[in-house]
Amino acid sequence: MDSEGTYDGQATRAGRVPRPAPPAEPPPKPRHAPTAGAPLEGWLRTPRPEAEPGVWRFGYAPREGGAADPVGDRSLLTGAVISFLACVLAWSLISNNYIPYTDLPVKLLTPRDWWKPLDGGPVDGRGVAALQAYMLLVTVVLAVWFSRLGSWGLAFERLVAARGTRARVAGATAGALFVAMLIWTNTLTVLGLVGGHLPYEDMSAGTVKLVTLLVYAVVFAPVVLFFTRLARRPAPGGRLKTAPAPVETPQADPASWPELREAGLGEVAERLGGEVRGGRMNDVDYARIRRAWESVRADPTRLSAFADAVRDKGAAACVHPSGDRDLPVRAARHDLLARQVLLGTVEDGERNPYARRGTGLALGPDVLGTSLLAVGPSGSGKTARLVRPVVESLALQALAGQAAVIAVGAAGSRLGPDEAYDIVVRVGDPDSVHDLDLYGGTGDCDEAAALLAEALVADVPGADVRRAATALAQLLGPFRAAHGRFPAVPELRELLDGVPSAVTSLRQALEGAGQQAMLRELAARERQYGAHGDPGPALADRIALLDRPAFAGFFDTTGRGRPFSLRALEHPVRVRVDLPERGHADASRMLARLLLAQFNASAAARADRSLFAFLALDDASHTLTPETVRGLQRLRSANAGVLLSLRSLDDVPEALRTPLLGAVGCRMAFSGVTTWDGQRFAEAWGTEWVETRDVTHRTVFADQPLTRAIHAFRKMVTGKAVTTDAVTVRQVERERWSASELAHAVPPGCAVLSLTSVRGERAAPLLLRLAGTG
Q1: What digits encode the pLDDT tens for the residues 386-418?
Q2: Which end of the chain is less packed: N or C, by CB atoms within 10 Å?
Q3: Distance between CA 275 and CA 289 in Å, rounded?
Q4: Where is this region: Disordered (predicted)?
Q5: 722, 729, 719: which is closest to 693 by C-alpha?
Q6: Angle between helices 73-95 and 125-150 in degrees, nearest 10
Q7: Residue 63 DSSP class
Q8: Which segments of 415-515 does DSSP mark as H helices, in order?
Q9: Are the C-beta atoms of residues 141 and 196 closer than 8 Å to each other?
Q10: Which residues contact 623 (CB under 8 A, 6 or more apart)?
Q11: DSSP letters along 95-112, please?
């Protein structure tokens, strides 16, 4: 099937990124299910409703209700107990006729001959039944009114049900037994009303027993049903403990591939459905074949090749060029249908919006396309809880033909095993299979010079990147014209230093080739040697960092090596670049700047932007320049994004800190950031209108002797003077998160994260409990 290498097999194509040949045997069956404990069919049928940016959509159900009243537990318990006692008192006074004329409504609504003329008592069973029904109605009205007054339901949910399922069941059982006791002892006249007026004397013994059982069933069944529902009802707005049951809609069952059946490929759909039911397909296979079908719909000429591949190979059809159908190991939970990775859970606290409390928080290309900046000290979990899950998610999407990912970190960073990547570039390691293209795979001398100058001198105070790019172009162009390639690092260093033999050799080669235009370029460079403001010495000093014995054999331009260039972003590649941070820190930072600049240029220059391109920098310290910050904003329209991880914003030039926070759409502050970094985040997140309550306590001075005595006794008992409270409620504008709160109020294992989608949707800063931290 011709698919520009996206879904081709293992054959080598011209221009493809080289990779060692994979084994011919089929890949092993994945060791894990696509979701925790859910088979593929159930995983496919689980609903994924549309939601706000960052919501884990797998099995998501919007939280119902509103925020709870901020009343304390003690006040809630006190109110419930007092209202219950008041209800019992009112009911007792009414039922024992201590309150006169309480039975007047029932006598007015019933015939007069039901009641005795003197004492008003019932004449026969009709009046008794009317009084019983009336008292039962009064009891229900009292219970409902006092339950609302005392918030019995809220008290039960917060004080009992919130302690767990067992507590909820125990509370419901106790309530059922209490009501049953009231009915059994005729305190509530339900049994007398339902079964006390039946003609038992006209029935046989067996009939009496049967009728009695029916009466009990009629009376106690509603009680059992009500309290059973109370015991099984989930807490209002509580967390969803398990995914909802699969939706049984055969017409839209994704496991049966309805889109293929609609296109007339019933045999292909049946083959794939059998693979799903037989357990031979995993989530990566499903996403990959679905992506292949989307490419077929875009180009119908691929239909026959797609159908043949599925008939022959089933779930292994349209496999990734590496032959892999899954990663060796997964460190996070992924949903490839929604293209999300679960980072953690939004804390159920007042700092988060009520609708988002307790929900899962996930990242996908829809928000990563605006780029993400993460700041936190060492050990806060940036690599393990953020960078690796995101890189792992995009590596899975690369296997499904949906993304290309490049992970850059120091050697030894835990960004996944080598087997999880197609290309692993170990800069400075002589055993590295792949090399790094210093010029980004471009053939344009000016573009290569601009990118190289950005990496070499953009962080040098007072350096003019434009003049440095011009100086490099005056050497790269002539050298490429003379030799058909760009210079290697030692050759470029000699030319920048103005070594006479190197310059003379290049001039002679240009004269022999008749390159007059390039001779003028070289002559212009020669005139700059030794002049004031010449960027050549600074460039030579920086390029000398790469001309070290540790890098011998790297950055080869003669074609003998296997260099990786970022021009491969049009293919679903998985790349990891290990930088020698320990022994060559300056060189590593320079290479990181080079990769970021090349990524910005290559992602925007792609002809095919259907793949989501992503670059993850595990340590972006001293890698950001004004041009790369401007380039971050252009990635949104190029279907690409960057993850930048920093220990502190102090690792970014002061003039770029505010533009950087404005250029990225997602900002993440881990636990332990400094107040100075917190201030920058607080300014970026802005303010919001909140309601404040100011309570003023005023001492009450009594004039009457009795009142004064009561106040004195109360003060003696409580130790406090009698006061009245004056409450003032107003709307004020406050920071969403202050610098002090970010520095001191974020618990370990948590982070504050704000999101922006590529469509412009925003999610306010959320306090997040990272997965695996408690």
Answers
A1: 999 999 999 999 999 999 999 999 988 889 999
A2: C
A3: 12
A4: 1-48
A5: 729
A6: 160
A7: P
A8: 445-457, 465-483, 489-497, 500-513
A9: no
A10: 589, 592, 593, 596, 617
A11: HTT-STTTTHHHHHSS-G
